[in-house]
Amino acid sequence: MAKLDPIAEFREDHRKIRDGLTELTAALQAKDVEKARRVLGKLDELVGPHFRFEEEAFYPTLRTFSGKYVDDLLKEHDKAIDMVRSCADLLKKPNPSYEETYEAAHSAQSLQAYVSNCDVLAILGERLEPKELKKLGKNLAAVRKEGVSLLRWAESIRIPRGTQGIIVGNFPRSEPISQDCRGQKTFKSPFTTKVVSSTEK
Ligand SMILES: [Fe+2]
Fold first, then answer.
1. Which residues have C-beta within 8 Å of that of residue 33, sequence separation ≥ 6?
2. Most buried by CB count within 10 Å: which residue of 18, 85, 108, 201?
3. Ligand 1 mean position to 120 CA, how many Å?
4. Where are the domains of the chain?
5. Cα(169)–Cα(72) distance, integer angstroms
6. Which one is the CATH code of 6-200: 1.10.3470, 3.40.50, 1.20.120, 3.30.1490?
7. 0.90 cut: is pTM over it?
8. How far does the centroid of ligand 1 lie from the alpha carbon of residue 193, in Å?
Protein backbone atom coordinates (compact mmCIF):
# COMPACT_ATOMS: atom_id res chain seq x y z
CA MET A 1 0.00 0.00 0.00
CA ALA A 2 1.42 3.40 -1.00
CA LYS A 3 2.61 5.66 1.80
CA LEU A 4 0.44 8.74 2.16
CA ASP A 5 1.24 12.11 3.69
CA PRO A 6 -1.93 12.29 5.82
CA ILE A 7 -1.83 16.05 6.36
CA ALA A 8 -1.33 16.86 2.67
CA GLU A 9 -4.07 14.39 1.69
CA PHE A 10 -6.41 15.73 4.39
CA ARG A 11 -6.02 19.25 2.98
CA GLU A 12 -6.40 18.08 -0.61
CA ASP A 13 -9.66 16.34 0.35
CA HIS A 14 -10.91 19.65 1.74
CA ARG A 15 -10.16 21.40 -1.56
CA LYS A 16 -12.14 18.75 -3.42
CA ILE A 17 -15.02 18.98 -0.92
CA ARG A 18 -15.00 22.79 -1.20
CA ASP A 19 -15.17 22.58 -4.99
CA GLY A 20 -17.84 19.86 -4.87
CA LEU A 21 -20.01 21.94 -2.54
CA THR A 22 -19.61 24.96 -4.81
CA GLU A 23 -20.66 22.88 -7.81
CA LEU A 24 -23.56 21.31 -5.92
CA THR A 25 -24.79 24.70 -4.71
CA ALA A 26 -24.74 26.08 -8.26
CA ALA A 27 -26.52 23.02 -9.69
CA LEU A 28 -29.25 23.22 -7.04
CA GLN A 29 -29.66 26.96 -7.54
CA ALA A 30 -30.10 26.34 -11.27
CA LYS A 31 -32.45 23.42 -10.49
CA ASP A 32 -30.23 21.20 -12.62
CA VAL A 33 -31.33 17.99 -10.92
CA GLU A 34 -29.27 15.58 -13.04
CA LYS A 35 -26.07 17.49 -12.38
CA ALA A 36 -26.87 17.88 -8.68
CA ARG A 37 -27.32 14.09 -8.42
CA ARG A 38 -23.98 13.46 -10.09
CA VAL A 39 -22.12 15.95 -7.90
CA LEU A 40 -23.80 14.74 -4.72
CA GLY A 41 -22.85 11.16 -5.65
CA LYS A 42 -19.21 12.17 -6.02
CA LEU A 43 -19.29 14.05 -2.73
CA ASP A 44 -20.84 11.06 -0.99
CA GLU A 45 -17.98 8.85 -2.14
CA LEU A 46 -15.28 11.42 -1.36
CA VAL A 47 -16.54 12.49 2.06
CA GLY A 48 -17.21 8.95 3.33
CA PRO A 49 -13.54 7.93 3.67
CA HIS A 50 -12.61 11.49 4.72
CA PHE A 51 -15.03 11.58 7.68
CA ARG A 52 -14.20 8.01 8.57
CA PHE A 53 -10.48 8.78 8.68
CA GLU A 54 -11.18 11.83 10.83
CA GLU A 55 -13.44 10.09 13.32
CA GLU A 56 -11.53 6.83 13.59
CA ALA A 57 -7.99 8.18 13.52
CA PHE A 58 -7.25 11.86 13.04
CA TYR A 59 -9.59 13.46 15.58
CA PRO A 60 -8.72 11.00 18.36
CA THR A 61 -5.03 11.74 17.81
CA LEU A 62 -5.66 15.49 17.95
CA ARG A 63 -7.68 15.36 21.15
CA THR A 64 -4.46 15.95 23.06
CA PHE A 65 -4.33 19.44 21.49
CA SER A 66 -7.98 20.47 21.58
CA GLY A 67 -10.80 18.18 22.72
CA LYS A 68 -13.45 20.92 22.54
CA TYR A 69 -12.59 21.73 18.94
CA VAL A 70 -12.84 18.08 18.01
CA ASP A 71 -16.25 17.82 19.71
CA ASP A 72 -17.49 20.81 17.71
CA LEU A 73 -16.28 19.25 14.47
CA LEU A 74 -18.09 16.00 15.28
CA LYS A 75 -21.30 18.01 15.59
CA GLU A 76 -20.55 19.53 12.19
CA HIS A 77 -20.20 16.00 10.80
CA ASP A 78 -23.72 15.27 12.07
CA LYS A 79 -25.01 18.31 10.21
CA ALA A 80 -23.15 17.38 7.02
CA ILE A 81 -24.55 13.83 7.09
CA ASP A 82 -28.08 15.20 7.62
CA MET A 83 -27.62 17.60 4.71
CA VAL A 84 -26.38 14.91 2.32
CA ARG A 85 -29.21 12.57 3.38
CA SER A 86 -31.88 15.28 2.93
CA CYS A 87 -30.42 16.36 -0.38
CA ALA A 88 -30.29 12.74 -1.61
CA ASP A 89 -33.95 12.29 -0.62
CA LEU A 90 -34.90 15.51 -2.39
CA LEU A 91 -33.07 14.53 -5.56
CA LYS A 92 -34.94 11.24 -5.71
CA LYS A 93 -38.01 13.28 -6.62
CA PRO A 94 -38.52 13.53 -10.38
CA ASN A 95 -39.27 17.24 -10.23
CA PRO A 96 -38.45 19.02 -6.95
CA SER A 97 -39.76 22.57 -6.58
CA TYR A 98 -37.55 25.69 -6.88
CA GLU A 99 -38.19 26.37 -3.20
CA GLU A 100 -36.88 22.91 -2.30
CA THR A 101 -33.76 23.10 -4.46
CA TYR A 102 -33.07 26.66 -3.28
CA GLU A 103 -33.26 25.56 0.34
CA ALA A 104 -30.99 22.58 -0.39
CA ALA A 105 -28.52 24.95 -2.11
CA HIS A 106 -28.47 27.08 1.02
CA SER A 107 -27.73 24.02 3.17
CA ALA A 108 -24.94 22.87 0.85
CA GLN A 109 -23.39 26.32 0.88
CA SER A 110 -23.49 26.48 4.67
CA LEU A 111 -21.24 23.40 4.83
CA GLN A 112 -18.34 25.42 3.45
CA ALA A 113 -17.82 26.59 7.04
CA TYR A 114 -17.06 22.97 8.01
CA VAL A 115 -14.37 22.78 5.34
CA SER A 116 -12.60 25.84 6.73
CA ASN A 117 -13.04 24.84 10.36
CA CYS A 118 -11.73 21.34 9.78
CA ASP A 119 -8.80 22.47 7.66
CA VAL A 120 -7.49 24.45 10.62
CA LEU A 121 -6.52 21.10 12.19
CA ALA A 122 -3.72 20.74 9.66
CA ILE A 123 -1.64 23.22 11.64
CA LEU A 124 -1.97 21.00 14.73
CA GLY A 125 -1.33 17.86 12.73
CA GLU A 126 2.06 19.22 11.79
CA ARG A 127 3.07 18.84 15.45
CA LEU A 128 2.46 15.09 15.50
CA GLU A 129 5.34 12.65 15.83
CA PRO A 130 6.52 10.86 12.66
CA LYS A 131 5.26 7.51 14.00
CA GLU A 132 1.78 9.00 14.56
CA LEU A 133 1.78 10.47 11.06
CA LYS A 134 2.78 7.08 9.68
CA LYS A 135 -0.16 5.44 11.48
CA LEU A 136 -2.50 8.12 10.16
CA GLY A 137 -1.23 7.61 6.62
CA LYS A 138 -1.92 3.87 6.90
CA ASN A 139 -5.40 4.47 8.25
CA LEU A 140 -6.24 6.92 5.48
CA ALA A 141 -5.02 4.50 2.81
CA ALA A 142 -7.10 1.70 4.40
CA VAL A 143 -10.38 3.63 4.56
CA ARG A 144 -9.88 4.89 1.01
CA LYS A 145 -9.31 1.34 -0.17
CA GLU A 146 -12.53 0.21 1.52
CA GLY A 147 -14.25 3.17 -0.16
CA VAL A 148 -17.45 3.27 1.91
CA SER A 149 -19.63 6.22 0.91
CA LEU A 150 -20.72 8.78 3.51
CA LEU A 151 -24.33 7.68 3.88
CA ARG A 152 -23.45 3.99 3.90
CA TRP A 153 -20.79 4.61 6.54
CA ALA A 154 -23.14 6.74 8.65
CA GLU A 155 -25.83 4.06 8.52
CA SER A 156 -23.76 0.97 9.11
CA ILE A 157 -20.27 1.65 10.43
CA ARG A 158 -20.00 5.02 12.17
CA ILE A 159 -19.15 4.76 15.84
CA PRO A 160 -22.12 6.02 17.92
CA ARG A 161 -22.04 9.65 19.02
CA GLY A 162 -20.51 10.17 22.42
CA THR A 163 -17.84 7.51 21.92
CA GLN A 164 -15.96 8.87 18.89
CA GLY A 165 -12.43 9.97 19.50
CA ILE A 166 -12.19 8.84 23.10
CA ILE A 167 -9.18 6.63 22.54
CA VAL A 168 -6.26 9.03 22.39
CA GLY A 169 -3.41 8.10 20.08
CA ASN A 170 -4.95 4.75 19.20
CA PHE A 171 -7.38 4.04 16.39
CA PRO A 172 -10.75 2.87 17.69
CA ARG A 173 -11.25 0.51 14.76
CA SER A 174 -12.48 -2.61 16.48
CA GLU A 175 -12.19 -5.95 14.72
CA PRO A 176 -15.95 -6.33 14.15
CA ILE A 177 -16.01 -3.01 12.27
CA SER A 178 -13.02 -3.94 10.11
CA GLN A 179 -14.42 -7.38 9.43
CA ASP A 180 -17.79 -5.93 8.44
CA CYS A 181 -16.08 -3.63 5.97
CA ARG A 182 -13.92 -6.32 4.51
CA GLY A 183 -16.90 -8.61 4.20
CA GLN A 184 -18.92 -6.07 2.25
CA LYS A 185 -16.09 -4.28 0.40
CA THR A 186 -16.40 -1.27 -1.85
CA PHE A 187 -19.81 0.28 -1.42
CA LYS A 188 -21.08 2.52 -4.15
CA SER A 189 -23.13 5.61 -3.58
CA PRO A 190 -26.81 4.70 -3.97
CA PHE A 191 -27.60 7.82 -5.96
CA THR A 192 -24.53 7.59 -8.20
CA THR A 193 -25.65 4.12 -9.16
CA LYS A 194 -29.15 5.44 -9.79
CA VAL A 195 -27.90 8.28 -12.02
CA VAL A 196 -25.73 5.95 -14.10
CA SER A 197 -28.55 3.49 -14.65
CA SER A 198 -31.06 6.21 -15.52
CA THR A 199 -28.64 7.75 -18.04
CA GLU A 200 -28.03 4.41 -19.70
CA LYS A 201 -31.74 3.82 -20.31
FE1 LIG B 1 -12.31 17.37 7.26
1. 91, 95, 96, 101
2. 108
3. 9
4. 6-200
5. 19
6. 1.20.120
7. no
8. 25
